[in-house]
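Researcher: Sequence recovery benchmark, item below. Answer with residues only.
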């Protein structure tokens, strides 16, 4: 069953603004904390690990932040792949 491409684009377009900041935050904090591990200075950068896990000062989202990140990213990947596959299928039919 093919979902209409317009509906896929709508889902994808609406989710992107909500997922951009959390995914970038996860990416950047994880990357910089890994640099801290490599240079042996993890004690000074534990705050990066807290941000990476979803603890934002007094707001603690550690239980749901990874799940929301995963669901959002998975949805973006699935809708993106479906749009890409539908586009490629249409191109192959024309040839």
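Model:
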């Amino acid at each position: 069953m093919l979902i209409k491409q317009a509906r896929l684009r709508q889902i994808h377009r609406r989710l992107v603004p909500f997922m951009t900041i959390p995914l970038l935050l996860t990416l950047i904090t994880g990357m910089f904390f890994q640099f801290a591990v490599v240079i042996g200075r993890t004690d000074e950068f534990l705050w990066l690990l807290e941000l990476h896990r979803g603890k934002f000062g007094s707001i603690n989202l550690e239980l749901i932040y990874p799940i929301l990140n995963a669901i959002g990213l998975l949805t973006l990947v699935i809708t993106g792949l479906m749009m890409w596959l539908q586009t490629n299928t249409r191109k192959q039919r024309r040839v």
